[in-house]
Design goal:
DNA-binding; 154 residues; DNA binding; 65% helix; mainly alpha; HTH_MarR-typ; two-stranded antiparallel sheet; Arc Repressor Mutant, subunit A; globular
């Protein structure tokens, strides 16, 4: 296997772009974590609550799939949110082993507050890009995502 060719002058090395992207991701995650913590939530708790604003009544298994985590992780997270009065489990007719997940009024309030904080953060960052740059960034992120999916499929 030969060494990769150096990038032409003025073209960044893919590794450099990767590290910039990962650092940006970490910075944004830290900033959002602080905003979400102001509501007394962790990022995983907020993710679960905001997912339920999109579709209530899904099972813990469906939540795990949507959140890209294990069923065990979701189970513990749901347990804590039920104890906090933010989520409730409701029996599913005809299925004694599964429960439908629903937000309580307080869970919905916190989820909506977190979503508003997230929208404000996005508006203060990505929202400041001009429309052409935003469209180009979106195109590149989707292209990168598709390349990553292709590697997964191999």
């Amino acid at each position: 296997m030969s060494a990769p060719k150096p990038a032409p002058p003025g073209v960044p090395e893919p590794d450099r772009v990767w590290f910039r992207f990962m650092r940006l991701h970490q910075r944004m995650l830290l900033q959002m974590t602080a905003r979400i913590r102001a509501f007394g939530l962790s990022i995983p708790q907020f993710d679960l609550l905001s997912t339920l604003t999109e579709q209530e009544g899904i099972s813990q298994s469906e939540l795990a799939e949507r959140l890209y985590v294990t069923k065990g992780n979701v189970s513990g997270l749901v347990d804590r949110l039920v104890q906090a009065g933010l989520v409730e489990r409701r029996a599913i007719a005809g299925d004694r082993r599964s429960y439908a997940m629903h937000l309580t009024p307080e869970g919905r309030r916190l989820a909506e507050a977190g979503i508003a904080a997230q929208r404000d953060f996005v508006a203060s960052t990505l929202g400041k890009l001009n429309p052409g740059d935003l469209a180009e960034l979106d195109r590149l992120v989707l292209l990168w995502r598709d390349l990553a999916r292709a590697v997964d499929a191999e």
